[in-house]
Design brief:
The chain is mainly α and 85 residues long. Helix content is 66%, strand content 0%. It has a domain of 32 residues. The longest helix is centred in the last third of the chain and has 20 residues. It is elongated.
Length: 85
């Protein structure tokens, strides 16, 4: 079952984000994503067709979602800080 993020988790995440100034393009986090079988197979086939890997496609989709969210709702970091204060 997925863990629910609470305010204390958000504070820790924001503190970690403030430390990340040395190499912001370094990919260090591993995220497990559970997909149904049909979606997982389609992701594998899409990776083949796009000559990319599943991780790259997932990363691109997540980044696109974040951009769209911020376009509609504003900066995620600022919103998280507002919510915990």
């Amino acid at each position: 079952m997925a863990k629910t993020i609470n305010s204390e988790d958000v504070i820790n995440i924001l503190n970690e984000l403030e430390k990340e100034t040395i190499n912001p393009d370094k990919k260090i986090f591993h995220q497990h994503v559970y997909l149904d079988k049909k979606t997982a197979i389609k992701l594998l086939l899409l990776a083949f067709l796009e000559k990319n890997n599943k991780s790259g496609l997932s990363r691109a989709a997540i980044l696109q979602y974040i951009k769209e969210y911020e376009k509609e709702n504003g900066n995620i970091i600022s919103k998280a800080r507002e919510k915990i204060n």
